[in-house]
Amino acid sequence: MGDYRGLNVRRDRGGCCPPMDLMRSEAMQLVRIIVPVESAHLTLSYLGDLGLFQFKDLNADKSPFQRTYANQIKRCGEMARKLRLFKEQMAKAGISHSEMAMTQTRIDFDEMEIKLGELEAELIEVNSNNEKLQRSYNELLEYMLVLKKAGEFFYSAQSSATAQQREIDARQTGDGSLDSPLLLEQEMLTDPSKQVKLGFVSGLVPKEKAMAFERILFRATRGNMYLRQAAVDDPVIDPISREKIAKNVFVVFYSGERAKTKILKICEAFGANRYPFTDDIGKQMQMISEVSGKITELKTTIDLGTLHRDNILKNISYQFEQWNNLVRTEKAIYHTLNMLSLDVTKKCLVAEGWSPVFATSQIQDALQRATYDSNSQVGSIFQVLHTKESPPTYFQTNKFTSAFQEIVDAYGIAKYQEANPGVYTIITFPFLFAVMFGDWGHGMCLLLATLMLIFREKKLSSQKLGDIMEMMFGGRYVILMMALFSIYTGLIYNEFFSVPFEMFGQSAYACRDPSCRDATTEGLVKVREAYQFGVDPKWHGSRSELPFLNSLKMKMSILLGVAQMNLGIILSYFNAKFFSNSINTWYQFIPQLIFLNSLFGYLSLLIIVKWCTGSQADLYHVMIYMFLSPTDDLGENQLFPGQKTLQLVLLFLALVSVPWMLFPKPILLKKQHNERHQGQSYTMLHNTEESLEIEEDHDSHDHEEFEFSEVFVHQLIHTIEFVLGAVSNTASYLRLWALSLAHSELSSVFYEKVLLLAWGFNNIAILIIGIVVFVCATIGVLLVMETLSAFLHALRLHWVEFQNKFYEGDGYKFAPFAFALLADEED
Fold first, then answer.
1. pLDDT of 474-502, one tens digit each?
2. I need a surface site. Which of 140, 449, 515, 719 has the fewest CB within 10 A?
3. Which of 116, 539, 60, 56 shows the shortest CA–CA distance to 322?
4. Which residues, at least 6 apart from 124, have a Cβ–Cβ distance to it below 8 Å?
5. In 112-182, where do the E strands start and end?
6. Interatomic CA distance for residues 429 and 798, integer angstroms
7. Domains of the chain in sequence order
């Protein structure tokens, strides 16, 4: 690979910032910077603000933990964790940090670390206390529900027991009968000491588990229990899970300690919260009063704690962005410092990296300012290195050109200073899209949607958008150009939602007599000059519309395709000229240009001649028999004198250009390689250490083995690919015709079979339904699906048919150390 310093001289321009030039990437240089340790941090801070220097990792053999500033990065990571905690807490509390005013005071990094630690400890303590209080508060709320519901159970049970006792007493005063209780029952009722004492457990159980809870209790106690449940009206917050759950209050009556043990284990298994309860009504009222008081106190305490926490978070929110930016930049600085190598004296750091040539003075100014501001006794050294390593690719783009450049970069990053397809993509991409999408009504819909994004771009750029919306917003200027070109091609096709208009004068055709009211060419005669711009409106709806438009669009697609492929081949010449590669000029550019134009350039010429002369010649027949029977007479298919001779010459040139592409280039490359190494065999010996270092550094580049077989096979593949690709790529451009026809026919179907059909019923309801269906079909199919389809096909034509003629795309992107890029990387 050649020395890239020679290329830098050609692009050297005066001034601090050159004008935007997308044709070739910016001239780059490999730079070594030697920085004193005391000013290293400030130097990188200024270079990060500048954002025009890409550092190389000089410590690639070391692990992250073995590097010089590993501890500082660990500190920054811990501070970033604390800031993420604050951000989560502010989000939960509904406090926005982006809308708060930031205080632009200078913050010391060490002081901020201490402050963040104190705030984290305070916030964790407040949250911990708040959680404990909230749990107690939720438990008391559940306890209050148990006291009220269980109290109702006991009150109703005691009321029914009192009524039963009165009934028994009334029976005892009368005569004994068969209905009177037995002596044992009577004795038990009258003697409380002989009554069986039942225990009970009360609490709340989730409503969805209530039925299973009851069945397990019944089976575990073998039916020796009595369960009462009552649903709570509103869901309650569970003290443990802190989620709103619908629950039932339950009271389980049992007899014996074994039954109690089983019931307690079942309650624990079902997540039932148990609360103490007494059957004494007086004590019940006292407990309700106490619990109510505690709930009020806890509510007040929780509110005060929440207010205190919100005050802490509000104070944090005022400086959150500033803290976050500082931590982010400090981490980036120390991460970059770890890429620098420490010299043997451990007093200087050595950095190497790439920078644009135009940024040299800006970088040197930043180094001088850092030396002055850090009070360093020794200044930084800026040294430009000579290298054969391929530099990164850097294009200066703005918000309009960046989206088009991204389309090219998605295929592959341009090799250093090769011709950039992005320049032409700005025009050709939306134009080819519009050829497939041509309808000025649909184009205006796209334009209105895009203008809304452009007019609100300041507001939308600061918001978090969804994935699809983010892509649309990023490509808003691409969509704008697509919409404008769609309006242009729509006017040429004379289609407004498939309806033609006489916008540029009257039609050239008129009815011969009143009987030709049906829209057919039969009975139509040409009464005036041709329609001034675009397709004559009389063609729409005629019997000849489809054959005419098919022929027009198919031939137009071939012309556009051949023109764009020729542009790609011409750009390969400018690449060869720029890199001083005469072999590519003579043995790649010229034969490729001859081969393509001998076949499809000639076809394009025939199309234009046929249009101009109005000939009825069959171009399919001409092209096929140009290969099968080149010496036969053309007969009625002859378009101009000397056509047969021209065809023989072009066919001969096409056949000659194939070996022209295949054989000379590998042979000449082998010859160049031998001459270069033969000259190097007799060079003088060098004794200096610097010369030895250079020789070791570039030995792998200068003495690579030249495998003639590999080069020849590669050239053979390239030749076959171009010859076959010339045919397949030209055929691929017929997608312009196919998609344009599909879009036009779909639009026509929706208009005639939906809108006009609904209009013909003379019914308001049917008309409204028809309009709704037409609008939905237009938006969903024509403005969304068809837009996406045409976009992808235009993308394919640029990536495959256009860029493979000249674009290598094997470079790598310039990735400078820039603080402005940190926010995007974090998102």
1. 999 999 999 999 999 999 999 999 899 88
2. 515
3. 116
4. none
5. none
6. 7
7. 130-162+196-300 (3.30.70.2750), 395-494+762-811 (no CATH), 540-677+708-735 (no CATH)
